[in-house]
Amino acid sequence: MPTTGKKGSKRADYASTRPQADGAWIASVDPGSPADDAGLEPGMRICAVGGQELRDIIDWRWEADGDEAELEVYVPEDDEVYAATLYREPGQDWGVEFTDVLFDGIRTCVNACQFCFMAMLPDDARASLMLRDDDYRLSFLQGNFVTLTNVSDEEIERIIRCRLEPMNVSLHAISPEVRRPLIGRNAQRGIDVLEKLLDAGIEVHGQIVLCAGINDCDELRHTLDWVEAHDSFTSLALVPMGYTKYSRRFSSSFSEDQEASRAVVKLIEPYQSRARKTLGITRFQLSDEFYLDADLPVPPAENYDGYPQFYDGIGMLRSFLDEGNEVCGARTADLRLLADILATQEREVLFVCGEAAQGVIQEFCDGWTASCDLATPPARPVAIHNYYYGGDVNVTGLIVSCDLLAQMPEQLDRAVVVLPEVMFNFDHVTLDGDTQEHIISVLERRGAAVLVAQTTPEALVGALMEALFE
Questions:
Q1: Alpha helices in 146-254 (DSSP H)
Q2: pLDDT, tens only, 273-324
Q3: Tens of pLDDT along 381-410?
């Protein structure tokens, strides 16, 4: 069976190991495109459009919005800047891609948040993992959460003028006496900027990282009341603070306190109920961890308002459960065929996951077995305990190579191992610096057939179908 790995993932949980771009450097040009017709080539840098210097991809899209674009282009081979004019038909793309979406470097964080995950990394973590980005442009372009504490008045005007929305904003707390110790001396600037954006009608998706004994209970009610009074907040996510064994401040969180988790669920329910009655949306959302930690059922899909904060861990479990049921009902023939092939080869599928996802993946495997009326389950989850980070880290996206390889069996000749794509970054590297290629080679030497897939039921079945029939 061939080894397969997906490339060109739409998303990773942490950044590329490559250095950030400095300027609008061209990565590729589509053949026959307006950019190609004008003589643009990879390795050139667009300095300006219509005389406007480019700070980022937003400037490019804004300034090059018409059917004609006057460019200033730097050609490294000549060390000269040339003029170029691009023409296109209505609706036609310019046909140029850049090496990065930010041309003037990334804005870094000016805060000192008590719960900052970067402060809980091991001392030997590579430099790229220590980059604390807090760039409002990545909030708009990629959905990153930002505090707005480093946003200037000019940038406020730009966000409003260009309607850079939705903005994904880390709120955490509203009371100054709580925010300042929690976030740092720039805490009030974030609220000042946020209020200007809300007054201008900019849509905001908010986030609160909830720390027991700091911004929960009465302070949480106060913050929720403040959000409830601002209509431009279309969603607010509550995420429990996570900690590692390297944390010098925290040694417990909601993951160790079922009653505290249940208290948060109960506290937010009236806000959800009012929002559904007045706005037709739930609006206030709890991350999946709260329901797991509280040992409560995950809410139905309609409570997640179309999953606006899916990649913040809001509704991932519900989405997986529902999609798993759909797949087991609609793709029974494919599942039976996969089971027959696996039985013929005397193999079983091992879905690698974090401990937090073990239960829902087991439900999918049980559904596969039941839908095909199988005597022997064809697949099971293998949950990897995170010793590397320790603490309460248990999500699939933070699985590292050293834990994975240490915990996977030495004999895998009867296994099809499915690695989660989300454990690798854009360069197919794990958080502890190992490569996808090396991990696959080690598992193959143990006898496994290995593939890499997105961790959704549809993607998992699709990857297995592709691998088994190639």
A1: 153-162, 176-183, 187-199, 217-228
A2: 999 999 999 999 999 999 999 999 999 999 999 999 998 889 999 999 999 9
A3: 999 999 999 999 999 999 999 999 999 999
Structure tokens that stand for 128 in this block: 């790229």
Helical pair 187-199 and 153-162, crossing angle rounded to 10 deg: 30
In the chain, count of helices (H) and strands (E)?
15, 14
Q: Which two tokens stand for residue 174?
A: 């509203």
Contacts by 358-363, CB closer than 8 A, 24 or more apart: 358/383, 359/292, 360/317, 360/320, 360/321, 360/324, 361/320, 361/455, 363/321, 363/324
392, two tokens:
């309460």
**pTM of structure:** 0.86
| pLDDT bucket at 130, cuts 50 / 70 / 90 | low
Same domain, 177 and 301: yes
For 26, the 3-state DSSP assignment is strand
Q: Which DSSP letter does residue 299 get?
A: P
Asked which of 313, 341, 368 is the last residue of a domain, the reply is: 313
Q: Is the Cβ–Cβ distance between 205 and 148 less than 8 Å?
A: no
- Flag whether pLDDT at 40 surpasses 80: yes
Helix (H, G, I), strand (E, B) or coil at 217: helix
> 280 and 150: one domain?
yes
CA distance 70 to 93: 15
Its domain, for residue 335, covers 320-469
Full strand arrangement of the beta sheet holding 204-210: 167-170, 204-210, 233-240, 284-286
Side-chain-facing half-sphere of 33: CA atoms under 13 Å: 15
If you write DSSP's letter for every residue of 33-90 in order, what string do you get? Answer: SHHHHTT--TT-EEEEETTEEPSBHHHHHHHT-SSEEEEEEEETTTTEEEEEEEE--T
Judge if 183 and 72 occupy the same domain: no
What token pair was written down for 396? 């699939």
d(CA 382, CA 248): 31
Check whether residue 41 and residue 164 sit in a common domain. Answer: no
Task: Tell whether 291 and 334 lie within a shared domain.
Answer: no
Give the Cα separation of 375 and 368 in Å (integer): 11
Distance CA 237, CA 272 (A): 12
